[in-house]
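Quarterly update, task 2.4: zinc ion-bound model.
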Amino acid sequence: MERFRAAGGTHLFLATQNYDPSVTFSLEAYARQFETTWLLAEKARADVGVRVYPVLAPYPIDLVEATGRLGAEVALEVYRSALDLAGRYVREKKAVAIGEVGRPHFPVADEVRRVVEPAFRHALEVARDVDCPVVVHSADLSADGFAELAERAREVGLRAERVIKHYTRTRIAPEARAGVVPSYLARRELVREVASTPGPWFLETDYLDDPKRPGAVLDLTTVPRRAVAIAQDPAQGADRLWVPFVESVERVYGWRPELTSEGAAV
Ligand SMILES: [Zn+2]
């Protein structure tokens, strides 16, 4: 977090993760995990002055192993209860979104697929009920995939603009998004490509993606470094940062990032 601050970073959304070596199966374990994420956010604000906004949910991939160990019915029940708990954090303003939720990015057994869909639907319902966005984990999506996601949200009464497709790896034209919001992986070429496109969209890093592919991980300092590069590029300029860092937060989350002591909402 100190390195993020030193690179110019002041605010970030932090998706929760499993801090234990084994897969999470119980509501108690999710409760510990969410509390840890919230405490990390509080600590970053107190110690480093970085505003960290927690994004909480039981990780959808957990369902794969949980279904095998607990059976579909119990696995789904634990997952739903954990989503409800994440919703309570949002209500209590200890988190700002439900995520990551969605579907495994790899083929799964039919038994798992039957659990994944109602689990995802419940995530959308919780987001609707507590009035916040959902951050979706899924395979890469075509325009049809974006439309399908928007449709799933609409079915439960959630606006498509409340749905963020995280880990978007190519530029998605506005007309191909069906209202769903891409969060782009902050690779240099992709950032250059999307910097001038209309919002809403976000930039992200996958700090702890796959330890087997260390080269694939973008360091936490990447987004602030890209932002500085855009601001200093005479062909672009700091105005370009308004879309991902202010306007998109306002449109998708419904509030404006708090100003820091430096008066910058970046
Ligand atoms: Zn993900």
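Highlight for this quarter: Residues 90 and 96 are 5 Å apart (CA to CA).
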